[in-house]
Design goal:
The chain has 535 residues and is an alpha+beta fold. The protein is built from 13 helices and 18 strands. The protein is extended, with a radius of gyration of 36 Å.
Length: 535
């Protein structure tokens, strides 16, 4: 689906003479024209093309029309047990976040995701009223500079990075039945749209945003909000148990370093954003070419998380946003080309007819079998090594049967949650800074010790060189005394053996401890030269 946003005020004043570069023709045709080149318009086909550029037009697409076009399908498929993914793609400032989220507090201004969540939770309430057991869990993950951050993680979690048993860093795993999942990611139970809005507000407060020349509140990271659904019947209903996962992916906008005028940390973020989107484009190209065996999903965290949605068990919807501005023609062209290449990709969505209890029992059996094969009687309590496969199954078991936060924890007012999240974020930042200062202090102490050792070694070397210089001076005095007594024959060149007896050779500084110097006068001189070792 393609959505064309309205032209902004500064774009109207800047591009008044050039006009617009995008025109929408129903039902699914997009025409791109370069106002500066005045070439023939390029036509792109899509399933749904929505024009939101002019509210006065009769075919204007508001938030409700966008939901009716795509969101209703997501609700229907998710409650049936299909995995669904809604992904927004486009240049920064073209309205991706507005289309996905909009204004949660306004019934008319709500975007796709709040309407999907409201419709889905209403369907699940009807299923729950029929006697089925329903569980809904929410998670919110951020990919910032190719690092995963849990936007719903409590700040008082007691863990130490790198320490076994306490390390809770987010790790990506894959299971044939579950698909891609993130270990140690918070799973918060929700029952109403108010709960989802509260979590969304907390996560939105935590995510990275900044002001650029292209956008007042530009997303500096990719975010994925997931709703994991599980429906288990009590025996009275006809259908079986099923699970599904609904993902809403808000990709950071593609940026041009010249137009966005980013410097410093903003430029570093821009580099990571464009790199991850480039890797996603490579995966889409490989899938569209039919080469499914060599898809580079592992080149970035973003593509790893989206591998299941773009290749396997998922009903995936791609939303591309465009700007009518004439200066945005090149970026619009790249967006439409990316959207066109995804039209050749096919997935294999199936109903997930299983529940977590059965999967938990199956995984526990696999773990017990692996322990027996490895000769373990208990789960690594003695510090014994674990196989990679056993670790993966243990991660999956924690993912499926992890402890859930009580419902009472979600009954706080939204403003209280936001202020609490802010204070927790500040406290976490202070603790992070304190840990960093402590690490720097230890490094400086180690550097001081190393410098003292280097100074001591330097003093030893200087002392040894001084002794060597004194002994070399003594050698020179002895040589001066021996020179008058040396008789050399100029008529006949000396033989090699005689040469060794008639000439006096100075010993090198480094070498054996004692050197013997024969001479024709019959005087032998033995000089002690200390061995000098440099590190």
């Amino acid at each position: 689906m393609i959505r064309l946003r309205p032209q902004l005020a500064y774009e109207k004043s800047k591009d008044r003479a050039l006009g617009v570069s995008v025109r929408i023709e129903q039902p699914g045709r997009v025409l791109l024209t370069d106002p500066q080149q005045k070439q023939q318009a390029r036509v792109f086909e899509c399933d749904i093309a929505l024009d939101s550029s002019d509210p006065l037009q009769p075919d204007h697409a508001d938030q409700a029309k966008v939901f009716n076009s795509v969101g209703q399908q997501v609700v229907d498929h998710a409650q049936q047990g299909f995995n669904c993914c809604l992904c927004a793609y486009g240049q920064t400032g073209t309205g991706k976040t507005h289309t996905l989220h909009g204004e949660w507090s306004s019934a008319e201004g709500r975007g796709l995701f709040p309407r999907i969540a409201a419709g889905l939770l209403a369907r699940l309430d009807e299923i729950r009223a029929e006697g089925a057991l329903v569980r809904v869990q929410a998670s919110f993950v951020e990919i910032y500079n190719n690092r995963l951050n849990d936007l719903l993680a409590p700040a008082d979690s007691n863990w130490t990075p790198g320490v076994k048993g306490t390390d809770r860093r987010l790790q990506i795993h894959t299971h044939p039945a579950i698909g891609v999942y993130v270990d140690h990611l918070s799973q918060i139970p929700v029952q109403s749209l108010k709960d989802v809005a509260r979590l969304m507000a907390i996560g939105d407060r935590m995510r990275r945003t900044a002001t650029t020349s292209m956008n007042q509140r530009s997303s500096r990271s990719h975010t994925i909000f997931s709703l994991k659904l599980e429906v288990r019947n009590d025996g009275s209903a006809a259908s079986g148990s099923r699970m599904s996962n609904v993902q809403v992916v808000d990709l950071a906008g593609r940026e041009n370093e010249q137009t966005s005028e980013c410097v410093g940390e903003r430029f570093r973020e821009l580099t990571f954003i464009n790199r991850s989107l480039f890797q996603l484009a490579n995966c889409v190209y490989a899938l569209s070419a039919g080469n499914r065996e060599h898809v580079p999903f592992r080149n970035s965290k973003l593509t790893m998380l989206l591998s299941e949605s773009f290749q396997r068990n998922s009903r995936t919807y791609l939303l591309a946003t465009l700007t009518p501005s004439a200066s945005g023609f090149e970026e619009n062209l790249l967006t439409c080309r990316f959207l066109e290449s995804t039209g050749w990709i096919t997935t294999q969505p199936v109903v997930n007819s299983f529940d977590s209890e059965k999967l938990t029992a199956q995984i526990q059996d696999e773990i017990s079998m692996m322990r027996q094969q490895l000769g373990f009687a208990a789960m690594n309590q003695d510090g014994l090594p674990e196989s990679a496969q056993l670790k993966s199954r243990l991660h999956l078991l924690n993912y499926l049967s992890g402890s859930l936060r009580p419902k009472a924890a979600t009954d706080k007012p939204l403003a209280e949650d936001i202020s609490m999240a802010t204070s927790e974020r500040e406290r976490a930042q202070r603790e992070l800074i304190a840990d960093a200062c402590q690490c720097v202090s230890k490094s400086l102490d180690s550097a001081v010790i190393g410098l003292d050792r280097l100074n001591a070694a330097h003093a030893d070397v200087a002392s040894s060189l001084g002794k060597a210089e004194t002994q070399l001076s003594a050698i020179e005095d002895v040589v001066r005394e021996l020179l008058p007594s040396l008789v050399l024959s100029p008529a006949k060149p000396p033989s090699p053996q005689r040469d060794s007896e008639e000439q006096v050779r100075l010993p090198p500084v480094s070498g054996t401890a004692a050197r013997h110097m024969p001479c024709k006068a019959g005087v032998s001189v033995t000089i002690e030269v200390p061995d000098i070792v440099f590190e």
